[in-house]
Amino acid sequence: MSAPFQYEYHDTQVHKLNPVSKLLLFGAFLLISQFYLDPLTKIPMLVVLVIILAVAKIDIRRYKTFLIAACFAVIVGRSYTAITMLDPELFKVYPQDWASTVILDLTPEGFPIIGRSALTYGTLLYWSTAPFQVLPVILAVAGLLETTSLTEIVSVLSKARIPFPIIFMVTVALKFVPEIVDNINMIQKAQMLRGWTSEGRNPIKKVTQLKPVLVPLIRGVIRSVDVISMGSKNRAFGLGPVTPLADFSFETKDKVISLAVVAITLFLIAASVLWNLGSL
Predict the structure, then answer these.
(1) Residue 175: what pLDDT?
(2) Which regions of 69-208 does DSSP assign to beta strands (E)?
């Protein structure tokens, strides 16, 4: 079994799609996830994405740690914005009176730096959207990278006449992600064999306990970037035009899926802009 975010071929209909179709398919989830906020509209999209990943035989349980960490980070990052969202005009779909109903006052009007803040139903609603913003992104990226080889991705970018520096950065990044994930797992296992643990409920103590993992990880990151960059240069990557090696012939299913994805994406974006579909 390959590492997370790393290509592994399976005999599935998703893997057999044209690389352009796969980029459009998973790219649509990335795009729509940023337009829509309402969890009631994001849940169906997330269900469809999980079904596609299941068809592609991708085990999303391997991404449990990434999903939990990302959700926690987004929730914490949105905490300030959430408790200061007291203007009822910010809510276009949900009743403004309901959204502005105060559950708990936190700071009064004129409070230094923060100003007035409170816990409202709108705050809770906005906070609940945080996981649904990051989950589709991680799963869509996982689906794309596990079903599309690096050769196919580079070929698509070259065919689209993307500038070489961008192709080079994408190549290095896609090679770097699986390697850093492997390094994290290896370092954790090695330190655990030496008696290291990150148990405890004190968040400050847990951060300090990560030092035995973070120090070798940072060193490994620097070394990996140098190795991958030098490897790409040694293969003369960038000295001439990139030759597309992937097959770009569109079968009927590729055409149907590509056209359907583009049509649905445009409709959902238009519905979001014109009718506030997916807004709070």
Answers:
(1) 67
(2) 102-107, 117-120
